[in-house]
Design goal:
Layout (H helix, E strand, L loop, with lengths): L7 H59 L12 H15 L1 H18 L1 H33 L1
Helix pairs in contact: 1-2, 3-4
Length: 147
């Protein structure tokens, strides 16, 4: 553009617009990557719930087949085993999302630098603030409808 014959102030303004466009594109990519990560976590969570539910069904089925009097309601289910299955599954399945939350910032900062880490933190704050605001609005409107 230096040889285009345009004045210096035009170059300053077009450079500022170019920088704004690059920033907008980077933020959009960040949101896309974040959304993909959330979807993969949701799908992983859905699979985990399904496998835990299957274990629970198998345990209840086992109890009905091995504990005499359950069908006649003269004996009690072994609730402790069912609670243990649910608790163990929930603790086990929370390890990957917890590790993701704990390690993301460390990995991003180590491999991609301070600038990228700053962007990840900013997007995290923005998306968390938006989610909190939405929840507050929904709670408020729900409360108003009941009153």
């Amino acid at each position: 553009m230096a040889g285009s014959g345009m004045s210096h102030w035009i170059h300053e303004r077009t450079d500022a617009l170019d920088a704004a466009g690059n920033t907008t594109a980077a933020i959009g990519k960040g949101f896309a990557i974040g959304s993909a990560a959330l979807v993969s976590l949701a799908l992983f969570g859905a699979f985990s719930v399904g496998s835990a539910a299957l274990k629970m069904v198998e345990e209840v089925r086992r109890q009905f087949n091995t504990i005499p009097g359950l069908m006649e309601v003269t004996a009690k289910l072994d609730y402790a085993t069912c609670v243990k299955i649910s608790t163990d599954a929930s603790i086990k399945e929370m390890i990957p999302p917890g590790a993701l939350v704990m390690l993301t910032h460390l990995i991003v900062g180590t491999f991609f630098g301070v600038e990228t880490l700053s962007a990840v933190l900013a997007v995290s704050l923005i998306s968390d603030d938006n989610c909190d605001g939405k929840d507050d609005d929904e709670s408020y409107h729900s409360y108003q409808m009941r009153v």
